[in-house]
Amino acid sequence: MKMMKYEVTVFTSDRVSATTLNNVFIKLVGTDGESERKLLISLRGASAFVRGAEASFTVSCPSSIGKLVMIEVDKQPLPLFPADSWFPAKVEVRSPEGDSFTFPIYRWITDSKTYLFREGTALRVFEDLHRLGQYSREQELLQRHKDYCWNVYVEGIPHCMKSDSPQSLPCEVRFSFTKEKEFLFTASAGLTELKLKGLADSKKSWTHLDDINRVFCCKKTSMSEYVQEHWKEDAFFGFQFLNGVNPIMIRRCTALPSNFPVTDSMVFPDGQASLAEEMQKGHIFLCDYKNMDGVQANIVNG
């Protein structure tokens, strides 16, 4: 019997620690059938799934399994090699008919469970006709709802993501090892600088904004310099509202409130314009803080 041979190419990410020394298995699922679960063995041995590697394999089936819709991937530890973490980037499959299929993965596989990955062609719900495709879509939505759900940290403030710590998040959305170390180094260097300047434990109040420039003279970015230069401008003030945690706090003013304390003479001392004219042009925005009445303010170093 002539076997139908599918060429499978596995791409391992070039991320740090993306390598696995475990056995990797794959099953191809098509519209007309599926392959057997296949152990991926290469002449390259353990180096087939090292960081940045691209390894090719052959999966044989007694007959064509049709258009590929999904793959099942799992890895199992060897006796001499304990379970490790693997970050495959994608899997490409070329069918005997000459068709190519790409299966994006881009996630950590840290255990011995079987994971389903759909073919990369974007499909709307009613176009995903295969039962496993529909099941995979449902499971993905359930898992995302579990991993990324809202949490009420304190009643009355914007919701945050429910998570005990960054380590409880899915591996693929955490900061990389190098980025995490960079954060720790930057924080340690900044605290050391403040300690040496005698400011880390200081409780004195700032007397002038220029004092901040002298304290943080070595930690500047193009953004921090822009903020220091433009923070008093109306346009940048409004920009901070629109890009803050509550962008609807600022609104275009169509009618002045009855308790509005600002007069034309305060804004236009020379009488060159009026609030009514500027409001008609859409130039006036208001931030209504009356819903904050009664909120107790923090006492800093009091």
Automatic annotation (TrEMBL):
State where the protein is found: Cytoplasm
Location of the Lipoxygenase domain: 122-302
One example of a Gene Ontology biological process annotation: lipid oxidation
- Show the Gene3D superfamilies listed in the entry: 3.10.450.60, Lipoxygenase-1, Domain 5, PLAT/LH2 domain
Chaperone found in the keyword field? no
Outline the extent of the PLAT domain: 4-123
Q: Does the keyword Lipid metabolism apply?
A: yes
Which GO MF terms are attached to this record? iron ion binding; oxidoreductase activity, acting on single donors with incorporation of molecular oxygen, incorporation of two atoms of oxygen
Which pathway? Lipid metabolism
**Which annotated residues bind Ca(2+)?**
D84
What keyword terms does UniProt attach to this protein? Calcium, Cytoplasm, Dioxygenase, Lipid metabolism, Metal-binding, Oxidoreductase
Q: Which domain of life is it from?
A: Eukaryota
Record site feature (Essential for stabilizing binding to COTL1), residues: W108
One Pfam short name: PLAT
- What's a GO cellular component annotated to this UniProt protein? cytoplasm
**Family of this protein:** Belongs to the lipoxygenase family.
Annotated protein name in UniProt: Transcript variant X1
What organism is this sequence from?
Nothobranchius furzeri (Turquoise killifish)
- Organism placement in taxonomy: Eukaryota, Metazoa, Chordata, Craniata, Vertebrata
